């Protein structure tokens, strides 16, 4: 390991580190050798360093590091900068500028998996780890400053001066005087994954009897075909799916539907808000024949929640509307299985895969998530006991998983549709649109909260056109379950491309997630505009544009003000947009550029007039 130490005052910290097996130390300071040797104890520490084989370099500017090392010697595994300061009575602004230049310089000499350690006095960093915490404007804002150079804060812990043998801090106001390090913190930074460059992407899928290709919506380019549920995946959503399936197989004969489920559906949706659907235009020349889509469309009607007029048109040979959309649910695929006659009463049929829904931006609202759908035909009159068996099984498996991860038993409740007490999240709200719901499955990992809806249960008395059988189905949001069981606060983390996420989950195991990006900075921007006269403002489209422009870097959108101009009746809206990443570095300049692009996009696509 090559270790670089910057801004050494009397070299006592470097001397305390030298001699460690497998470590090559390069100790530097800003002053000349003559100036540095004049500090108390410095000459002795320098001698010790050189005797142990360490390098000692003088007159090193921490903002121009690559100038001091040959290209083959720039790959440092660890860079230490203890108590940086511009000197004398420099204020917070100058010290922020120093850190900004330092981090940019580090990016040029740090190994890919390397770390940057910065020790600051109590309160200087401006993070919640500081106790007491300074006001943001009066701190060095170290996490935001580092983000501008592509670094994230991965760890923060007390700076324990007493553990470094012979260490003595010095340099108070550029003098050979010590300063107080009580409550000081060591901030550990790592490289962030680079910004996503999302190029337009085409995808092929089966529609009826034909294969078609389509342009993937920009907001989904990094989420399509990720393979989280495939056999070689260690992703927590697959682990949860496998554990739930194993538990259900103990109570029911189980059949996994392994055939490739098409991503596209076609036709009109009845009762579903169209702004919640990802509408798709097929690639030029890809429009399938009427016969091919008729069969595909006839299979895409379940529990009478899709438009029956469309199905009737198909049966009567009328022209089919060319409306395609990404599947918002796996229910139509279960319907197709039932209609083929391959549906065995008493056997639990299990389907799983990603589904796509446009939605507002919240930490638990997902434009794509993995659905686990189980469908079972039971004797009429036994459906209630069957539902209870299903729920008890899911409850047992989920409780066991959460207890193994956190040591705490969660509260899992079955709530009737008429007495639903938990917050109606976007998942539950959309499921309500899809058709009648008998029960909601709610999970609460915190006793102070009523719980989060992670699943719904439906019955379809007439689905099999049988007087003896009833179809029971349960739909579960695997992504929400993974968040609750593994302590993941933001759904976006499930889709990160950063390898450090999956490294925390060995195949077949669930663990409590530890974030590798602590206290990410947030940037608040407001946007206000006039809404086109006589038009209803589509807030879901507004949120979707924010997702697309920012690459999922918007964490919150809040309506701050709604104003109607007297006389003209014109309506103005003002929204507060908060930019924050959960997994990679986001600097203030990048956030400001996103805001400018967002303003342009809403003006172009939503027809608003900016104020």
From TrEMBL:
Q: Which Gene3D superfamilies match?
A: Bira Bifunctional Protein, Domain 2, Ferrodoxin-fold anticodon-binding domain
Molecular function per GO: ATP binding; phenylalanine-tRNA ligase activity; rRNA (uridine-N3-)-methyltransferase activity
- Alphabetized SMART domains for the sequence: FDX-ACB
Q: One GO CC term of this entry?
A: mitochondrial matrix
Q: Does the keyword Ligase apply?
A: yes
Q: Which GO terms describe its biological process?
A: rRNA base methylation; translation
What keywords does the record list, in alphabetical order? Aminoacyl-tRNA synthetase, ATP-binding, Ligase, Mitochondrion, Nucleotide-binding, Protein biosynthesis, Transit peptide
Q: Where in the cell is it found?
A: Mitochondrion matrix
What sort of enzyme, by top EC class, is this? ligase
**Which Enzyme Commission number(s) are listed?**
6.1.1.20
Reactions catalysed according to its record: tRNA(Phe) + L-phenylalanine + ATP = L-phenylalanyl-tRNA(Phe) + AMP + diphosphate + H(+)
* UniProt domain FDX-ACB: residue ranges: 518-611
Q: Which family does it belong to?
A: Belongs to the class-II aminoacyl-tRNA synthetase family.
- Name-wise, this protein is phenylalanine--tRNA ligase
